[in-house]
Amino acid sequence: MSMIGHDEPWRQWHAAADGPRMHHAWLLAGKKGLGKMHFALEAAYRMVGSGPVPDQSHHPDVIVLSHGPKDEKEEKKQAEGKPFELARSIRVGQIRLMQRRLTTRPTMGDKRVVIIDPADDLERNAANALLKSLEEPPVGTFFLLVSHRPARLLPTIRSRCRLLRFYALTDEQVELAVKRHAPDAQGAAVAAAVAAAKGSPGGALDFVEHDLGRLYGLMQQLVAEGDRDFTLRGRLAEIVGARPDRDALQGIFELGRSVLAARLEQADRPTQGAIIAAHEEMVRLARQAPTYNFDAGLLVTQIGSLLASAAPASERANV
C-alpha cells in the first residue's frame, strides 16, 4: 500500500518504467521521515517481480546497504542476535562486497536492485567505489539512493542519478499518518509531534515513540521566558534522562530547531538575531553529535541554553 504523499513519486516512477529505457540509478531525495526507504523497497520488489514487500524474508536480488555494526565486537553481537551498536557511516568494505555480488547474474530473474540508505552517510572511499558501479552498471542492475541531504553527495554521483523528489506533507496528512500508525497516541502528544515534525510523518512518529511531546511545551517556555535560575533546563534534563539513545537525541535536536524556527516567524526584528544565532548553533551541534563523543546530559543542557538564549529576556538569563 502506498504511503501518504507518495502519489506523485509513483506517477513519475511508473512513467519511467513504461518508457523505452528505465534509468539505472535514482536519487530519492527529501527530508528525513517521508517514507523514501519504504518507497525504495516497494519499487525494488516490484522490479524483481516479487510482489509485495515481505515482512520477514529477504529477496536475493534486492540488496540493501545501510549502517552496519560499528566494529568486530558489535558484529559478534549481531551474529548472536543481541542488540549491537551501529557504525556512523556506510563503509567501503560494504560497497566492495556488494560489487562482488554484482559480478554474478541475478538469482531469480533478470533484474537486481541495490538500495543505499542513507547515501548521505557513505564515507569518502565508499562513495568513490560506488561511483565506479554507477558509471558502468552491470546489465539488469538498478540503484536506488535514499538521501535526506543530497548536497552531501559527490556531484559526480548526483549527476548519474535521476532525481525523484519527495516533498513535506501537510499537517493534516502528518496527523493522519500518526493516527494510523500510532493509534494509542494521545491528542496533546499528537498535536505536539505534528507541529514539531514540519511535514515529516516519520519524524512525528519518532517524537511519539520517544515521548518527546512532553518536551515541546517546556522548549516553548524556554524560548519565551529564558531560564534565569536553570529550573527549566533542569526539568528538560530530568525528562530526557542521563543516557538518551542516538535516535532520541537527534529527535530532541529536531524538536529544538523546530521550536526556534516557529519562534522566528513570530518574533519582532530586535529579537530575530538571537534566534537565528541559536538556530545556527543548534544545527552545528546536531551535525557534530553523531560523530563526536559528547556527554548526552551536557548536550541536552546545551540545547536548553540555546533555547533560553533566544528568549526576549535572555540578556538577564544565566545562559
Automatic annotation (TrEMBL):
SUPFAM superfamilies: P-loop containing nucleoside triphosphate hydrolases (SSF52540). It comes from the Bacteria. This is DNA polymerase III subunit delta. It comes from Parerythrobacter lacustris.
